[in-house]
Amino acid sequence: MTDKYRTIKEQAYEANMQIPAQHLALYTWGNVSAFDAALGVFAIKPSGVPYPDLTPDSMVIVDLNGSVVEGSLRPSSDTPTHVVLYREFAVKDGIRIGGIIHTHSTAAVSWAQAVRPVPLFGTTHADHIQTAVPCTPYLSKDAVERDYEKETGNLIVTHFREHELNPGEVNMVLVGGHGPFAWGTDAAKAVYNGAVLEEICRMALNTVMINPGATPLPDYIVNKHYQRKHGPNAYYGQKK
Questions:
Q1: Pairing of β 172-175 and β 179-184
Q2: DSSP string covering 166-189, please?
Q3: Residue 78's pLDDT band (cuts 50, 70, 90)
Q4: Is 236 part of the annotated catalytic residue set?
Q5: Which of 94, 120, 166, 220 is the least buried, fewest Cβ under 10 Å from its Cβ?
Q6: Measured distance CA(214)–CA(127) in Å, rounded
Q7: What is the per-residue pLDDT for 178?
C-alpha cells in the first residue's frame, strides 16, 4: 500500500465494512468511497467483491477523471457517480465532502422505486436535514444508453441545482427507481448519513401506512430541532 494513500484506503475499508454491520445491503449491494481533496483522489470498494473478502489493500484509488491510480482490481461500477459528486459538490461548490455511500437498503429503495421524496414528518428527520429527502426523476433513455453511472451523478447534481438544494446541508438523495446516495465530511460520516437516511425512510413508510393523510412537521418545530444540532447556538451534545 502506497503510504500517501494509506489513510483513505483504511477509511474506505472501515466504512465499507459498516455496510453489512448496519444492515444497509445484502451481498455486494453497496459501496463507500473516501476522498482526499489535497491529492484529488478517492479510495473506493472494488466491484463485486464480498465484504468479508475486503482488506484495506483491496481498495482502489481513483482520480477525478475516473482513472485508476492504484489498485489491481476494478473499482465499483458506481465509481463514475462518485467522480461527478466529488467534482461538482466538493471541488466546484467547495462543500466539505470526504466520503460518499451508495446502497440498496430496503426502505430507501422503496421510496426511490415509488419516485417520491420522503416527507419530513418528524423530529428525527428534522435533526438531520430541514427538507424532505429529495428524489430525482428517472434517468432518460438517452442518458442510460450514453453513460449510465456518470449520468446518474449528473442527474443528482441537476436535481440539486434546479431545486436550490445545498449539498452541504442536504446530504442525502434518492435516485428515482434506483436507490439512495449520501455523503459526509468523511467516509464514516457518509455511512452514518446513509444509515440515518434508511431509518428516516422506514419511519416515513410506517407513518403513511398508519395514517395515509399524515402532514409534514410544522416549520417552527423543524427549525428548532435542526438549529439545536447544527445552528450557531447549537446545544445538542458536548462542547468540543
A1: antiparallel
A2: -TTT--EEEETTTEEEEEESSHHH
A3: very high
A4: yes
A5: 220
A6: 19
A7: 98
Output the CA torsion sign for 170, 14, 64, 41: positive
> Starting at the edge strand that comes first in sequence, how are the strands of the sheet with 172-175 ordered?
68-70, 60-63, 41-44, 30-36, 99-103, 179-184, 172-175
Angstrom CA distances, 198 to 79, 94, 194, 232, stand at 22, 27, 6, 28
Q: How confident is the model at residue 1 (pLDDT cuts 50, 70, 90)?
A: very low
The catalytic residue among 36, 93, 127, 148 is 127
Instruction: Provide the grid cell at 132.
Output: 424532505
Cβ atoms < 10 Å from Cβ of 34: 27
> Which 8-state DSSP code applies to residue 75?
B
Rounding to the nearest 10 degrees, give the CA dihedral for residues 36, 134, 125, 167: 30
- 219 catalytic per annotation: no
The rounded Cα 190 to chain-centroid distance in angstroms is 6
Q: How many CB atoms lie within 10 A of CB 236?
A: 11
Residue 230, amino acid: H
The full DSSP string for 214-228 is: --PPPHHHHHHHHHH
Q: How far apart are CA 32 and CA 98, in angstroms?
A: 11
- Tell me the per-residue pLDDT of 81-122, one tens digit each, with 9 for 90 and over: 999 999 999 999 999 999 999 999 999 999 999 999 999 999
Q: 61 pLDDT exceeds 80?
A: yes
Contact 152, 178 (CB under 8 A): yes
Can you give the pLDDT at residue 239? 77
pLDDT tens digits, one per residue of 152-165:
999 999 999 999 99
Tell me the pLDDT of the chain averaged across its residues.
96
